[in-house]
Structures are given as C-alpha cells and as structure tokens.
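Q: Sequence in, structure out?
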Amino acid sequence: MQSISEKPPPVTCHFHETGSFVTTLLAIAGTLALIYWYARHAYRVHPSEDEVHFITTDDGWRVALSRYKPRAKKRKHPIIMCHGLGANHLGFDLRPDHSVPVHLAKQGFDVWVLDLRGSGYSERASLLSGKPFRWTFDDYLINDAPAAIDYVCKMTRSKQVHWLGHSMGGLLLYSLLALGWSDRIRSAIVTGSSLNYAGTRSDFNLYLKLVWLTDLIPGIPAGLISRLIAPIIGRVPNPFEKFNWWPDNMDAADRRRLCAWALDDIPSGLLRQLATAFDPDGLKSADGTVNYFERLQDATTPVLVFAGDMDRQCPPEAAERTLDQLGNSEESRLVVLGRGYGQQTHYGHIDLLVGRQAPVDVWPQLDDWLIEHD
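A: Exactly. Output:
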C-alpha cells in the first residue's frame, strides 16, 4: 500500500500586516502633525505686550510676566492679570483691537500678565531640566504668585497691586487673601471663580467621577487637543464650546485663535487639588491641612466679582457663595451678566472678559472699579 504524506501547513507571514499597521500609524501621525501646524499658522496670535520679564520662583521655576506699559497718564498702582486652568496670557490678548491688557493700559495702568509655570512663555516641565510635570495649585499659590507680586512691586516702586484673575486666576486671588495677602493687594476683580462649588450646577460635577484617573496618568494634554480641534471650532457645534463660552458671544476667529495658542497642558496633581473645591467645605491645600475657603473671613481687600448667567463652569450661585464668605463682603460686589440682567446676550465662562460684548458690558466696569480703588 502506497503511503500518502500530508502537506506541511503553509507558513503565515505577518510582515505585510505589520507594514500596513505601521503605515497607517504614520499616516495618522502625519495628518495630526499637519493639522497642528495649520492651526498654529492659520490662527496666529500677535500679542501687544511691550516687554516680557522673567523671574525665578523660590523653588527654581522661571515664570514670565508680559508687561503692557501705560498708554495714558500713569495710575498709582499696577495690575497683575492671571489666567485660568490650562490657559495662558494670550487668552487676554487675542488681537490688539480686542485686548483686555491693552484696554487697561490705555486707561493709564501698568499691566503685567502672569504666565504660571508650564504655561505660555514660562518654563515647561522637562526631564532635561529636572522640572517634573507634577505641580499643584499650591505651587502657583506659594511660589509663582508671590514672586510675581514682589517683582511687580519692585519694578513699579509700588507697595500694592490690583489683581485681575479669570477662573483659576481668581481662585489664586481668593487663596492669597486667605493666606494674609490683603495688605499687598489693593483691590481685586475675579471672573468666573469660586472656592466652593459644592451642590452647584457646575458641569465640572460630571468630571468628578473621573478624578481617579489622575492617579494613572500624568495629566491632560489640553494644549495638544485644543490645537487639533481648532479648525472645527466655530464651524461645527460641539460641547467643548458651550462648556467654555457662550457661542453667540465669541467671535469665531477669536475662538480658533484661543484654541491654537492660549491653552496649555494640565498636570494631574493640579486637577486633584482643585477637585477639593467641590467638597462641602471648599478648596483645601494639597496636603489637606489648610482650608482656603474658610480662611476668607479674614480678607480685607475689596473684590469685584463677575459671573455669567450661562457659565457652565462657575455658575452665579458658586461665585456668590465665595463672595459671601469674604470678611469684607459689604465692600465687595457681584455682577451677573446675561440677557436677564440687562445685557443683549448670554455670558458663559471665557467670554466674561473677551466676548463680543465684553468691551461694552464689562470693560467699563473694570475701569470704574480700578480707578475708584486706586
């Protein structure tokens, strides 16, 4: 009987499949790089600062202050402006004819816009420099902000400053007051800020369930993501925009400029600490030993507070709660902006200072408050 031998199984080669996978990855990476490059060039921002100063904090970080010199008779006290979470100074100065610091400089104020560590012109985290992507809100509060106040006072020969903080920049102001800085801050303005969001309708409540992820990842690449979505901003309805501004109150080109240039990455340690602002007793230090919200009772600096009727990050009730906690709340004031409050449009979050109607609805009130308290 003749035996018939079985054919050996065919040899499967994965080289072609692997090559296709690599080619696909390279194509995706190339497309994303092209979108990134396009956003940075098509939506370029031309800031109007006169000078950029760099200072070194006590813990060795190099942070930037963009200076806008007075363009009228000089006022007595300088202004420090501070941006919000994942933002930088360019968000205040998207174009020369619609710039908050330029406007204030035209009123005679010496304006200094702070870039907190890791943002804008300031030093970034780097393995080469030994500066890790691991800072918290307390690093801004204990190191960056005091260094900025000391430097600006030295350069302007002033003993006090005005502080204008948006969002987290307002949280910094409140926390400085909680730590006893009232004697150095003559007056303050905050927009879309609170130290206690517990029980409010802030959309951040939706993200609190994801805070555990901050133990697994170093941070959120908000700068990269915002640049990649910049081309569709103002063209395709999306939840990102309503979360950050009231669309009808933001020029579409300004929105794209903001996404292409004015947003930066957010470290996980910062997010974890800011999440304590949703605890019933408000924002605390990173180690949990200091409650900044409770300590506001000792503040003496007058504060002008702006809130947007459609702000999905800091609704008016959150802003009012922190104002009421101030030790001198009778000298401070809350202004809610929106259609039900005398304005022609609703207001969201970022548009409180740079919205279409802000030069009419907000900027004159900034002027009046600062001049009155100068």
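Strands lie at 51-56, 62-68, 79-82, 111-115, 161-166, 185-191, 219-220, 266-267, 303-308, 333-337.
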